[in-house]
Amino acid sequence: MSAALQVTAFGLALLSTLLLLLATCTDCWMVNADDSLEVSHKCRGLWRECVTNMQDGVRTCDQYDSILADHPVKIVVTRTLMITADLLAGLALATLVLGLDCITFLKEDPCVKLKMCYGAGVILCAGSILGLIGSVWYAVDVYVERAMLVSHNIFLGVHYDFGWSCWLGMAGSMGCFVASVLLTCCLY
């Protein structure tokens, strides 16, 4: 039972880590489009902003200035939290691989392997919390930005939606959290 649980947690952690990495690297955290004309579709990400012309499908992207330049707080905080979550999830995945029962590393000491799985679960939990805070931070800021424009009667024809990168970040964080619960609570 323990080996099956470990392999399940490993598969979920691997998939969730890939989703977190994909969310961090992609550029569609916030989507805004003009409701009335449907001429263009703009995606804003952590690293660049892309506009797709809906008539001919041409996509142009503008890279943000240097990483050290002044950026909005939501981009800086989300970048930091997502990169930290990626690193923690990767570290947890490496620790979990070494702690799996089916790996011959430290085969003579199962207590150490169990502690490695437990430690991987704790690290995954920390990474999932940071990733979830980063994703939700960005989503809340998008909502607040839209609410401010509506309250001032500015750009009422433009709507803001959460992009697929934001949803990937939330899904990857929740997957890491579930994998950490499996590793920390269910292994014993």
UniProtKB/TrEMBL annotation:
It comes from the Eukaryota. Residues 1-33 form the signal peptide. The chain crosses the membrane at residues 118-140, 162-187. The keyword Transmembrane helix applies. It is found in: Cell junction, Tight junction; Cell membrane. One of its GO terms (cellular component) is bicellular tight junction. Pfam families: PMP22_Claudin. Its main location: other. One of its GO terms (molecular function) is structural molecule activity. Keywords: Cell junction, Cell membrane, Membrane, Signal, Tight junction, Transmembrane, Transmembrane helix. It is a multi-pass membrane protein. Belongs to the claudin family. Claudins function as major constituents of the tight junction complexes that regulate the permeability of epithelia. PANTHER family: CLAUDIN. This is Claudin. It comes from Cardinalis cardinalis (Northern cardinal). The gene is Cldn16_1.
